[in-house]
Amino acid sequence: MAGKVIVLTSGKGGVGKTTSAAAFAAGLALRGHRTVVIDFDVGLRNLDLIMGCERRVVFDFINVINGDAKLNQALIKDKRNDNLFIFPTSQTRDKDALKRDGVERVLEELKDSFDYIVCDSPAGIEHGALTAMYFADSAIIVTNPEVSSVRDSDRIIGLLASKSRRAEFNLEPVGVHLLLARYSPERVRKGEMLTIEDVKEILSIPLLGVVPESESVLRASNTGTPVVFDEESPAGRAYHDAVARFLGEQREMRFLQPERRSFFRALFGRA
Amino acid sequence: MRLLNLLFPERRTSAVIARERLKIVLAHERASREAPDFLPVLQKELLDVIGRYVEIRSDMIRVNLGRSGDTSLLEINVEIDGAGVKPTKNGAAGDGRATTRIEPGAAPWVRPS
Q: Do A190 and B33 touch (CB under 8 A)?
């Protein structure tokens, strides 16, 4: 098996990287692919909470890199899906502990037993974020329809094209995809939010999915359940669609229209 | 048509403003990102040299490396204030003409020490 490394990155913080990494990894696992999701945010561990396995963390990424623990001692098997594993990061040690050759060794080992290795990048463009993107085969740029997020995404796309391993060794470039998160059709209709077309045009990378702003995302993080496990959630279904597109399926974009207004509100104009 | 535009101006929503601002800032940032590493240093040194003779701000000089076909083109644009060359404080304006040709040797508006 030769697993593919996918990084979820954004530059800007708080745009939904960890939520998206958890949802995307769970989505891949639900479709039968053996998937591990790795937290690269050393010192600010949060993937474990979002995945609901915070009380099962014994060893972490840094322990494995330093040879203090074996990979199978650190990997946490998800209780909801047999194909899904969580690889938590260290909460205490300093971020420079993420040595590039150590990371490479661990990723190569993971490639032998997983189809997909999903890397949850920290925010910023410092060591942790650069290490998370360096070994990527594909990158999913998580962007919010908001000026600072779009600008930082553009910066990250530039870094992927110049600072990744694929760029340094003149290999086929990292496959870059746009995941537009926290999209609000209602605000777009009012002219208060950049449209999908605006963001696509500005960043000029292919659109993998649009995740609508949804209350279910906070509910999911409250309970430590990746949002794709919520069948009712529009955000969860949008992530399922994005995973399907990533795997090569053609799917229409959904949840792009404001929720239908009631008959009376339609009759009496804007409320 | 003009009258119509006046009566019903195109809605300049905040999203439209966001799009325009992003396009401008990213065009600028992408250009500087793709430039070779020495360009900022070259730009700074040129600024220092020119600044010895005329008042110049850092945003008045642009150094770009372009490409057309097989040739690379190093393009240096120096913008001078609309009123003409303003000598630096310790220089003098020479003959006071609005534009000044740079002669070989010492610049004409530099007072001999």
A: no
